[in-house]
Amino acid sequence: MTTPGRTKTVGRISRAEQARATKAKLASAALDLFAKQGFAATSTRQIAETAGVSEGLIFHHYPTKLDLLLGVTSHHEVFGLKVRALMTDSKGVPVRGQLEALAQTFVSTLAPERKETMLVRVLLSEALTTPELGKLLHRTRETVIASIESYLQARIDEEELRSDLDPSVAAQGLLGALVWFFLTHQHLNPRAWRAQSRRYAQRLVDLWLRGALAEPRLSSSGSKVRRGASE
Hints:
This protein is an all-alpha fold. The protein has helices spanning 4-37, 44-51, 55-61, 65-75, 79-87, 95-109, 115-126, 131-157, 167-184, 190-210, and strands at 217-218, 224-225.
């Protein structure tokens, strides 16, 4: 026979599960509408109709529409969150392997058919006109940059990277190059995205690690001379 206390516990779990299911339904409906219409042009009433719930239920879970968007981010692992997770507790991983993992995260997370990609589009496009979203994007950017910077500094300390490397500039340049490719290649279909983004990410990592200068050649005296320089 079930005790009253046990029944109450089961009831609480059931309500919690129901709340999670409702939030997931709201997040899915909101993301679809935000992606199609934009954040500012989408009303909570439209979201409620799409989700098949009352508008009041939205405000029960999310006091404002911005809170709902933040809830959407918690239901979908966006690129920034994955980068931060990847860089955390990875200070002992060699640079090439870690940056290749970062490139693969970029390729897989921002594929055109993924809902996470729709969310990133919404955040990037609306941040310019919605101050709250601009602040959210800025905080996310700073957190991601800090995680990459911390990793690079650890590899500098281990003498795997140059001691005069500026980890902040290096982190911003690497992430910025990936995001720029994403912004300028939204027209690609999923197959083309996978091929071109993978090739771009691999070449970017190679460029980042090897640099752009040609390898020095030996002069007639046996000393190393950069190509283009006089002996």
